[in-house]
């Protein structure tokens, strides 16, 4: 289809306008032109299209300015939906979010890791279908599924690159297969990156902020967002802070590195350290054979919050190690904000935030330039799943696909590999 | 001036086309359209403008394809020039580069740190003028000056934020003042970031590469380039690897952090360690009172290369610590390449490259995704100065200034602050 040069960049233009409307919550056409640098004619045309597609609606009038009253536009939250599917070791969390990124339905279930992908993925698909039905969401309004997980991935092909949760999952085309089962596009991405972008979409961070997200559930991951987009590096395997070295003289890690953060901080390390503290282990009747150490972690954190001295000391030390890594992340990426997301931060309360903030305040090389704030995620435990859904919304609506370097598209249903 | 929507993005379009011509060395209009995704009509118009401005020239014909022979275009290297001024502690290096980024003239002088900026900057300006005259470069073709230095900066205001080289330099408007003396735009930037982008402009890296540069002269700095642009973070104070912690149990550093890389590796640490090795210190007659420890560093490196066992052990250990930090940089930024630049790498020979490559090969978490190569800079000791000149070329010609978020413009002569 021949297009005049005037609209050669339309997907990016549309995407930019929609993203500014999203961030502003409601905005006039005049303000849109000022914010985007686009001409009034372009704004009128793009807004007309967005109104026609139902993505935005007119929404009252702005404050009187002495001239003609300005009609405001805003997102129409029920115009489109995204689905987030978060695979976290043995748990699967599914959320449906509206165009504004707000969850409208949620479910979770155990046992994913004990099934091979050929049996787990149809089960996940059935859960997604059931949730959409329960939430009475029209299938035609669902843009796709963001499937998010941890560890190295090949986003383009939609495969996990490590034997997690089991060997059978490695290199299995999880995104294409789930897309086939659902008849919806599916994109694969990193859980921490997803959690990071969720903050942006929901307006919890300044639009032009450069921020990092430390994501702690079972392990520790990270993501960085620059100008409203996830920092991708060369292969979208970025900010894996769980496996950076905080101690050059530390122990070898199975990952190949030495003195890795996850062996010092994080839930499994904390539980191990608590088991090595006889008084504490006895008081909490910690179970060394517990399948799910997240339960033991939550109990140690609760004890710390209730005032148990030994528990508190372990949690604070864990937080200092995390703060140490947060300093490295902030220095290298020149961040102005760090968000703490994921269920382990959610259950552990405010100790992590307070101690990490202390470490940043004390140790930042560039603190003469600007401070770095630490805040909890607005999305708490479901940050990764919500972020997965947001990645789909962003991918389909606001990133703009004018050029190939905009990145892989979600894998459409029926395709073996992403284009 | 009213512009039709078709050309609302012209600066970015021109910049993109020019950058593709630069990278390709010579290219036909058909190939340009394919590479950029722009229409043939747009390409023809933009190339006509670039030919008219003298930035590109026609350059013979491409290989026969059976159809009409394709005329090639290429950069006209003598169309424009950039000047790089590198302030490194007490030394100032000045280079003039052509549009292709190739140095056409160079000078250096000592003593910058022993003068207050009010006296040093006019001296620098006089040296720039003299060099341009010597090189017979038309003033009208000089796009501006890239002034590069180390440590935290406020690029927008053109000031250094730390008392380096002396307290009088902190917060002095170095870029605006130099611009006034020269009657040329001056931008301020980081030496390691400059060294990094120099590789890109000269075509020493793949255009879509995500790579890091470790820059070692007196201290250790870093820069990251993504898609042909320096990664800026929130304030352009990024990748300061000299002051990331490699040892959570290490000593406090004056910068506020603990176990900083520069206290383990790098020229001053190596000289200190050599002075603490009696046999070596005696053999090399190392001078503990030496003003310029770079001379002592070069002698230790030369001894190591000549086979001195103790010197070799120190250099290799220093390289392992650097490799350790390189792993962190590569993991967090998801790099596919690391470039080693700066005079200390240049004098020390290939040991650093070999050992850092070993560390990366051994320790990378994401090595299942892709390996990371380590290469020496094509620009060696003058990488920062050359990079400073390249930053001006890029800023003025290929980054495109369609929107405010494209970053600060060079400070024009006569302005107290960048817009």
UniProtKB/TrEMBL annotation, chains A, B:
Residues 400-419 are annotated as: Disordered. The keyword Amino-acid biosynthesis does not apply. GO terms for molecular function: kinase activity. InterPro entries: ATPase_NBD, ROK, ROK_cs, WH-like_DNA-bd_sf, WH_DNA-bd_sf. Keywords: Kinase, Transferase. It holds the Pfam family ROK. It comes from the Bacteria. PANTHER family: GLUCOKINASE (PTHR18964:SF173), ROK (REPRESSOR, ORF, KINASE) FAMILY (PTHR18964). Belongs to the ROK (NagC/XylR) family. This is Putative NBD/HSP70 family sugar kinase. It comes from Saccharothrix texasensis.
């Amino acid at each position: 289809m021949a297009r005049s040069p005037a609209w050669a960049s339309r997907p990016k233009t549309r995407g930019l306008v929609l993203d500014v409307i999203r961030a502003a919550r409601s905005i006039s056409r005049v303000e849109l032109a000022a914010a985007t640098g686009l001409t009034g004619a372009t704004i009128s045309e793009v807004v007309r299209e967005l109104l026609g597609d139902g993505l935005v609606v007119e929404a009252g009038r702005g404050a009187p300015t002495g001239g003609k009253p300005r009609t405001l536009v805003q997102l129409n939250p029920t115009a489109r939906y995204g689905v987030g599917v978060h695979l976290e070791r043995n748990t699967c969390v599914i959320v449906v979010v509206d165009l504004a990124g707000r969850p409208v339905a949620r479910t979770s279930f155990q046992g994913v890791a004990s099934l091979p992908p050929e049996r787990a993925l149809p089960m996940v698909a059935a859960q997604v279908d059931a949730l959409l039905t329960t939430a009475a969401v029209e299938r035609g309004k669902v843009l796709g599924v963001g499937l998010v997980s941890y560890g190295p991935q090949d986003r383009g092909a939609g495969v996990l690159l490590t034997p997690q949760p089991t060997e059978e999952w490695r290199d299995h085309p999880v995104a294409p297969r789930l897309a086939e089962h659902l008849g919806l596009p599916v994109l694969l991405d990193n859980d921490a990156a997803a959690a990071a972008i969720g903050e942006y979409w929901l307006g919890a961070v300044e639009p032009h902020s450069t921020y990092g997200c430390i994501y702690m559930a079972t392990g520790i991951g990270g993501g960085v967002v620059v100008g409203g987009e996830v920092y991708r590096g060369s292969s979208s395997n970025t900010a894996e802070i769980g496996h950076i070295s905080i101690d050059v003289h530390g122990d070898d890690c199975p990952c190949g590195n030495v003195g890795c953060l996850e062996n010092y901080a994080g839930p499994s390390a904390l539980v191990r350290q608590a088991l090595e503290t006889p008084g504490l282990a006895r008081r909490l009747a910690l179970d060394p054979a517990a399948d799910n150490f997240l339960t033991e972690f939550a109990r140690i954190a609760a004890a710390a919050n209730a005032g148990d001295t030994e528990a508190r000391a372990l949690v604070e030390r864990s937080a200092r190690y995390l703060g140490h890594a947060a300093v490295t992340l902030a220095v290298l990426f020149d961040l102005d904000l760090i968000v703490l997301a994921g269920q382990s931060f959610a259950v552990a309360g405010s100790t992590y935030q307070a101690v990490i903030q202390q470490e940043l305040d004390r140790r930042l090389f560039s603190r003469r330039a600007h401070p770095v704030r630490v805040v909890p995620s607005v999305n708490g435990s479901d940050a990764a799943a919500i972020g997965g859904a947001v990645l789909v919304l962003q991918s389909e609506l606001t990133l703009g696909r004018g050029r190939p370097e905009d990145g892989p598209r979600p894998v459409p249903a029926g395709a073996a590999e992403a284009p």
